[in-house]
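Re: weekly structure request thread

Next one in the queue (659 aa):
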Amino acid sequence: MDFTFGFGSQSLLVIDPGRHTIKVGIGALGGKGRWARLQSVYTVRTGAAPQDTPEEVIERSGELIREIVKRHGLSAKQVSFAIPGRVSFVRQLKIPKVSGDRLNRLIQYEARQQIPFPLEDIILDSHVFETGGPELGVTLVAIRKSTIDQFCDMLRTAGLVPDTIDVTTLSLFDAFYTQLKEEEEEMVALVDIGGSTTDMVVCGNNRVEFIRSAPQAGDQLTRSLVDNMGLEWEEAEELKVSVGEVDPSIDRRTDPLAYGEDDRNARVKLFLSKAADPIANEIRRTLDFYVSQPEGEPIGKIYLTGGTANCPGMAGFIESRLGIPCEVKNPFEKTLVNVDTLESEPLQTTSAILLGQCQRNIGDIPFRMNFLPPSIVRRKEFEKRRAILAAEGLLLALLIGISVVMVQRRIDVLSKATQSLSEKLEGKGAIAQEIKKYTENTIRLNDRFRVLQHVGRSRGVISRTMAAVAENLPLGEIWLTRIDTDTQNMKMYVSGSDPESVVNFKERIREVTRLRNPQITGEERQADGGIIFECGAAIEKNPSPEIRKLREKLENRNIELLELNFEDESKPTGSKQQCLITATVREPIDLAEQRNLVRDVLQAEKDAELGYQVENVVIAQMDFQHVYKGQYRIPAPQPELILKNEMDISDLSFIPPGQ
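Done, posted below.
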């Protein structure tokens, strides 16, 4: 199911990988960011238990996303993914007003001071904004490469490669941006209470002022039911969702026995309310910390969202504890994204991250950071260039092909006329001399045409070989920085994400039938953990099983092949009635070498055991300057007679150029 809407639009897949619930949205983007649509949302439970490690949850999530994509037949031109805010490092900075390279260098310098990891171990992005004063404001966000690699592996398991990697806290701001623009006069705290974390984003003046993620969230509510009511985790989770409620009049001093042992719903409300206190306290501590900063301002209201926000009474509970107006906010309200098909509960409070990933592509949304690994960025850039190169190569091959056909037809007519005249004229008189001159010119034209044919074949060979290499590169692991090639050999300069990528590259490059004997050399580790190396290989112009067999037998006899072609001339093709083998070799230096060369080629052709009833052989020769010198045409059964010494090489006719 590939959703596309209108000319220039692109289908879009957005993913929010929660610990307990994975949400996958499918929609579309209009050309040049004119519009966006979120068409459908699919959710699935991960079944994560409290003891499951983040790595185990990520691995399971990849399999579940793959199932969602497969079950619903989803595909998209653009894939966007949001990494949990808890794994990001966010810093708010003030820097002097500079621009260009000076701005980039200053941000890099501040990152070294602010981020607790070496820059080569992180992927960094930033948002720069005016503060209305003498300085610039910078929102600096960093994520460890190892963490991003984990999530990219998860997507690879699902058969996906991301175009955008966002952070849930930034997507939250993007989702509510159109509503926040109307609250310019006061500070608003966006609070997304999920299963394992609570994301908090303090906003004002149409920008982010403070971000924090806390571990107190919906899991604490479930844990309270498990511990106090003796339930299994899944049973407690189901009970929380079905009859859960929080009451601000209940606090940690409330006697559990006050609600009796028999009223199950009342006891659920009691334990959930007690467990909600730590969540409210963590929100208070976060907001108090922000307000205590030199440039902090009082929070005017709280917008509540996320799965746990759907628990009845949660907004009132937090408002009573913090003394700040709090409401469960619908991100679909006033959104720029078309969500006509999604106006339903509980999607309105659980799809904010998906919505933010869509809305970031349109309008004046300020946060458009992307934490895509450099390896995938280079891969995407190469894929864009590959389409252009392929189109250019195709057009060039078509033009050359048309030229070759037209010139060949003309030469065929001239050659027949020349042959007829040569047979009838004895070469005397002025007219005969003119015709002789005309004939010589025709022969020269024919020789030049052979060069044109060679160029035409060469162009096609190079473009097809490069396309075959590109199709077999390990996705997201390898990128080509340079290619040196002609019609005989190719040398690739390659960068890999890690040493393991070299192994994967070797396996995949052997599958390229247009390359022979690929050799890896010059492996060199890089400071960022990556690796660079070179790969050289010979080019197979017309790959086929017959070509492979023939080449192997010819090379075993130390024959220097310049070109090898095989044509199945059977009717119907594949019936193995007749074939033509053309081996282009270096011109021998004397008659003895000529005899040995012909016998070796014919013996190699026999040893290949191609299985055709009639096998005709052409042995073409070129000098060291690749000038065509002529050929032997050896139709069946002459190859067999020569090998049995029933026919001598001298009995063959050597056909010079032009004939």
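The longest strand covers residues 515-525. Residues 582 and 618 are 5 Å apart (CA to CA).
Next request, please.
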